[in-house]
């Protein structure tokens, strides 16, 4: 026993050895820092960390970024929708809650996904852990969002094969049952689309327009919604373009609302004149989601990009040379490339709607077949449209003054908005109808001569076939 104790080094010896090793380590570190470049040192450190993680850690983590290949990551969107249904009983200090029904204080509370909070889920006996992270950029211009999904390393393949499709299908089911639609506007300062609850109550049932035209539009929309296999089979992006044109007040915005409510699609309202250049346009448009409407109102206003070109090719070249380097604005080719070029394939099941009061001012390249597939003339009132408006607002189907009113409608140009304004002045049907007759009579006198207006038209930009 005594000999064993004699072999144990003294404290002073151990301390001397430790000091020697520390000094040697510091010298080696100094030499490495001076000789080995920092990128190489970082690479070696990373590889050692990966080696350690793969051999000694039992967990595996999937990282799901909000964006993927310049588009919104649909897996991120599915995870966000799915997890909102899993947080009701979450044990945490903070939980985002809210209601979109401002008129009903007793409306059911909706939950959001809390940031930097563990959300646990279970799938076929496998325990899973979700965390959503927000990382703000140094200049505070944007926030990077991503999910981390952690499981035991041995379940990695099963999670990829079975769990990802499971929560994606669950999210799709929730989306189909969503109660609210949203209208988005783009915030340039934050480089993000900002939503607001869309509560427009116009539907095709309440939309005042010719029955044949309405039926044709509904059938076209339904065929588009069911056309995934068709578009894939012919090698085209799953999108549909609608051009709504006609005088102001003829119901173009109401038509957009009716389409959104019929398809259950969110609306992205883009003010194209505020877009700085083609690069920003691509960034804005690729951030929109599937099953949505991209709306560009008054496409002929606010920018020269959509205007019908009157110059020759030589003049176009000269104009480009004379253009200042610091000029901003999108180009026609930039807009066309997204509407019908390679960038149009970034996403699917999307409807693009242009509205204009002056179709003749738009460059033909922008509204040719494959871009704006269907052209819908939103025109002045016809006798049927007038009766529909009176029936909705005044709750009457007939009146002794209908005959003279119908004759005047065929002789003057009056918009549905003008008719609605007149009959909304009072709830008394007789007074409202008399006021409408007087209004139309005054318009005829101002006009001086009669003119029969066309009824609403729908034109297919390709072959005039559905």
Automatic annotation (TrEMBL):
What the record says about family reads: Belongs to the AAA ATPase family. BCS1 subfamily.
Going by the entry's taxonomy, the superkingdom of the source organism is recorded as Eukaryota
Q: Which organism is it from?
A: Capsella rubella
Q: What Gene3D superfamilies does its record include?
A: 6.10.280.40, P-loop containing nucleotide triphosphate hydrolases
Q: Which cofactor does it need?
A: Mg(2+)
Catalyses which reaction(s): ATP + H2O = ADP + phosphate + H(+)
- Stated name of the protein: AAA+ ATPase domain-containing protein
- Leader sequence segment: none
Pfam family of the protein (one): AAA_assoc
Q: Which GO terms describe its biological process?
A: response to stress
Q: Which SUPFAM superfamilies match?
A: P-loop containing nucleoside triphosphate hydrolases
**Ranges for domain AAA+ ATPase:** 238-382
The UniProt keywords, alphabetically, are: ATP-binding, Hydrolase, Magnesium, Nucleotide-binding
- Is the keyword Magnesium assigned to this protein? yes
Give GO terms: molecular function aspect only.
ATP binding; ATP hydrolysis activity
């Amino acid at each position: 026993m005594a000999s064993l104790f004699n072999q144990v080094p003294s404290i002073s010896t151990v301390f001397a050895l430790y000091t020697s090793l520390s000094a040697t380590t510091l010298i080696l570190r100094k030499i490495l820092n001076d000789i080995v470049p920092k990128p190489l040192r970082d690479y070696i450190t990373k590889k050692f960390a990966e080696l350690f993680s793969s051999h000694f850690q039992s967990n595996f983590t999937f990282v799901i970024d909000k964006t993927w290949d310049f588009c919104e990551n649909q897996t991120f969107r599915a995870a966000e929708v799915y997890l909102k249904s899993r947080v009701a009983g979450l044990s945490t200090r903070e939980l985002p809650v809210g209601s979109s029904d401002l008129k009903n204080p007793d409306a059911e509370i909706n939950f959001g996904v809390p940031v930097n909070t563990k959300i646990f889920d279970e799938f076929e006996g496998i325990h899973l852990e979700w965390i959503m992270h927000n990382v703000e950029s140094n200049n505070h211009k944007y926030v990077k969002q991503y999910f981390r999904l952690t499981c035991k390393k041995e379940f990695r393949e099963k999670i990829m094969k079975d769990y990802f499709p499971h929560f994606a299908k669950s999210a799709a089911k929730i989306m189909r049952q969503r109660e609210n639609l949203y209208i988005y506007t783009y915030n340039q300062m934050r480089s993000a689309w900002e939503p607001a609850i869309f509560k427009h109550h116009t539907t095709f049932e309440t939309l005042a327009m010719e029955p044949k035209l309405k039926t044709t539009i509904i059938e076209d929309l339904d065929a588009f919604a069911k056309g995934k296999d068709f578009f894939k089979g012919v090698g085209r992006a799953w999108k549909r373009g609608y051009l709504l044109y006609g005088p102001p007040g003829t119901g173009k915005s109401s038509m957009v609302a009716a389409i959104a409510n019929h398809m259950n699609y969110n609306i992205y309202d883009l003010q194209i004149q505020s877009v700085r250049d083609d690069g920003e346009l691509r960034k804005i448009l690729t951030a929109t989601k599937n099953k949505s409407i991209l709306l560009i109102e008054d496409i002929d206003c606010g920018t020269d990009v959509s205007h019908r070109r009157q110059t020759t090719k030589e003049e176009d070249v000269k104009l480009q040379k004379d253009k200042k380097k610091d000029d901003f604005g999108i180009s026609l080719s930039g807009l066309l490339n997204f509407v019908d070029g390679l960038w149009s394939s970034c996403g699917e099941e999307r409807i693009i709607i242009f509205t204009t009061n002056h179709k003749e001012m738009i460059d033909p390249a922008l509204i040719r077949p494959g871009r704006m597939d269907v052209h819908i003339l939103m025109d002045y009132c016809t006798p049927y449209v007038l009766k529909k408006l009176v029936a909705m607002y005044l709750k009457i189907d007939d009146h002794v003054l209908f005959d003279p009113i119908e004759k005047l409608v065929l002789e003057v140009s009056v918009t549905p908005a003008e008719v609605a304004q007149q009959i909304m002045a009072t709830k008394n049907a007789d007074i409202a109808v008399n006021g409408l007759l007087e209004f139309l009579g005054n318009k005829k006198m101002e006009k001086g001569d009669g003119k029969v207006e066309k009824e609403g038209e729908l034109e297919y930009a390709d072959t005039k076939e559905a």
